Amino acid sequence: MRRIMILLTIVATLAMSATSPLEATKAQTRNQSSKMQFTEAFVFPNECTNELMDLTDTTTITCHDQQRADGTFSEKCEIRQDVNATGQTTGITWQGTATFKDDFVTADSCNFSFSNRGKVHLISRGSAVNTIITFDDFVRMQDCVMTDQHLVSFDCRGNQ
Asked: Is this model's pTM higher than 0.90 or not?
């Protein structure tokens, strides 16, 4: 799910930078901010309880874009989520928050970098295990050759 979101973000940002009117006007810099909110539901594995969780969240994405006269485009986004999860096997319920920081920089469609770093805090009631999930995604396109790295780690706290 996160990988699909990353790829869609990259494609959308590339499309925006490729069709920018700033290249024709050669403006020094153009800044733009945007904010959007949506809800989603999906299934995600919980390595702390060795089960799948049904997750729902409300996500708010705030971005700041900058287009420079030299054609370089950068976008920095902060993603905040209010999360509810239920373990499919244990029935444990979690509530929590997630914060992600995205950074996208491109000179053209064959040269860009994208990073997404975030942490999800899922807190359960009582003595059931709490789960902290850390995400680190790095995508780099250099001379039209893409490399990517996706790291996820779980920090399990409490009774398991």
From this structure: no
